[in-house]
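Both lines are given unchanged directly below:

***
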Amino acid sequence: MSGLLILGAGGHGRVVAFTARSAGSWTEIAFLDDRFPAVDPVDGSPVLGSFDSAAGLRERFPAAVVALGEARARLRLMAELRNQGFDLPVVVHPSAVISEHASVGAGTVIFAQTVIHPGTTLGEGCIVNTAATIDHDCRLGRGVHVAPGTHLGGDVTIGDMTWLGLGSSIKNGLSIGAQVVVGCGAAVVTDLPDGVTAVGVPARVVGF
């Protein structure tokens, strides 16, 4: 076991740290945040500097995870960390249930009480939040954010950097494009193209 750096000391970062501590895979956890030094320690873990401090800390913290909700920034920082030689682990809460026949990309975080079924593939840098479920044979692209309590039926495809809002549901067999926003509580029953915002029950496109 060794140290883990978490980039982002906000609320999401706190949950990532809680998840990492629960997993018990790292002896030391610390944060970086661009608000440094005007940010306090997070639940007992220190904030050691801004994001550009990472390279100088790699010997002590060889693993790093980006805890930012904005997908484009998350993926950009992940690429920088990879180029600096960091390991980008998958961080999984021990109460999550992940099939041995699912594939999870580097830098993805999977929070408590989630379920990911066989045949599903998650790209790098995804967030699968508390009590979400992803059924069989789903394909999620890079940087997808599945909010708490969201449910995907089987054989669903989700494009890169799409955000599925709190408590939303996606009907089995659908294709959701890249950079889509699905509103909280929405029920998606038809395919959605790239770049749209969809809300309601059933979900309807309200913006591009």
Remarks:
- The first strand starts at residue 2 and ends at 7.
